[in-house]
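User: What would this chain look like folded?
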Amino acid sequence: MRALLFALLFFVCGSANAQLNNWDPSWYATDSALIFHDDLDYYLNAYSKGEIMAMRKQVNIWKMNFDKLMRQTIREIRAYSEGYGMDPHVHDFKLPVAQQEGSYSLKANDGKIRAFMFGSISNPPARVQIERWSRLAKKYTGEDVQIFVVYGRELHPGDHKTFKLYPEPKSETEKAAYAKEFAQLGTIPVLIDGLDDAVFTAYGKAPNGAYLVDKDGNLVFRSTWADDRKMEHMIDTLLKWYKAGKPKGFVAK
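Assistant: Here's the prediction, encoded as structure tokens.
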């Protein structure tokens, strides 16, 4: 189904200009957090038409049975897009890191702003975003900001020339190997979700979903598709808010 959903997104995005860049960047302050508007649009609104066409070439969607594609996608789109079924709170996890020995715990890093996305080696948007997020991470060197990827489900396992070497992994070892190879596309940490995809499931099964957790452990943003520009805007705003003493009537300058 992940392939079906992505195929439909590619099919409709070329004529969906009204959906591009339509996220509301404003925020509001509560007694305990600065909350941003979720971006739960299932269109790939982080990309231009040209970028979408380039990603489309990496997958083999046109060999699928189109009627079957549409029926299955319509039935399942709510279950795999827009965070459907996710309890919109932080779901703690402790996962191994692909690039080194050891693991990373979300809860143990309270006191930091944490931005993460889901991705996989057969996920074209995630391949683009890990490079962009790596550049973003360099901007926040020395700040209380952590940026990383959780390696989730394969979006196009075994598909076309690009991903034929990556069928659905059958073991933790195989998934870890994929994650290590994916990590070479960027410079940020890549955490490896289990073969049961427990973390991916807890966060709504969006294949390139993005999430922002503040220093106090609040989930303050979630998105169906990662977008480094939006994440940068929110991290900058959060940093200014903390430095201003977390005022409820906060206005970024």
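Confidence is low (pLDDT under 50) at residues 14-20. If you want, I can go into more detail on any region.
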